[in-house]
Amino acid sequence: MKAPSLDQWLKEAKQDERAEKCGMYLFHNGVVRSTAKAEVRMGAENAAPVTGMEFHYNADKVAEAEKEARCMPGIHYVRVWLNEGMLEVGDDIMLVLIGGDIRPHVIDALQTLVGRIKNTCVEEKELH
After folding, report:
1. Bridge partner residues of 78 (DSSP)
2. Other Cβ atoms closer than 10 A to 117
3. For the segment 27-64, what is each residue's pLDDT rounded down to a tens digit?
4. What would the 3-class secondary structure string for 54-104 be?
5. Could you say which of 1, 13, 87, 127 has the lowest number of CB atoms within 10 Å?
6. Mean of all residue pLDDT scores within the chain
7. How far apart are CA 124 and CA 58, in angstroms?
8. CB neighbour list of residue 33: distance below 8 Å, 6 or more residues apart
9. pLDDT class of 22 with cuts at 50, 70, 90
10. Burial class (CB in 10 A: 0-12, 13-18, 19+), 4
11. What are the φ/ψ torsions at residue 3 (nearest 5 degrees)?
12. What is the C-alpha separation between 62 and 57, in angstroms, rounded?
């Protein structure tokens, strides 16, 4: 699935009725990498390279995570896109855009939302 345009997303966010309250926007662009999660996160030295990923998500859980992010202090804009199916190295996995009043609020919201999506809303299987 082709990812949406980040430029278009930002343009739309800046035209949103709440845009005047936003002093910062942050994007997260998750991408399939060739380095195994076991190597990156746990230091496994002999992990086989990743050749692709099987990725699926629960839309209801994602919608709930987005809703909760919108309720975080200072957050005025949230948008999420997730890919699905068999992905190759270099393919986009997810895009997340957060807009809010000040840097600490926006950084916290982005980190919280991406973490929640990764930990509770998706199933991903690295292929080797």
Report:
1. 98
2. 24
3. 999 999 999 988 888 878 888 999 999 999 999 999 99
4. EEEECHHHHHHHHHHHHCCCCEEEEEEEECCEEEECCCEEEEEEEEECCHH
5. 1
6. 96
7. 12
8. 40, 50, 89
9. very high
10. middle
11. -70, 150
12. 8
Closest CA to 13 of 125, 95, 97, 122: 97
The tokens for 35 are: 């380095």
* Sign of the torsion formed by the C-alpha atoms of 62, 93, 126 and 33: negative
Q: Find all residues with CB under 8 Å of 39, minimum gap 6, and list them.
A: 45, 47
Count of helix runs (H) and strand runs (E) in the chain: 4, 6
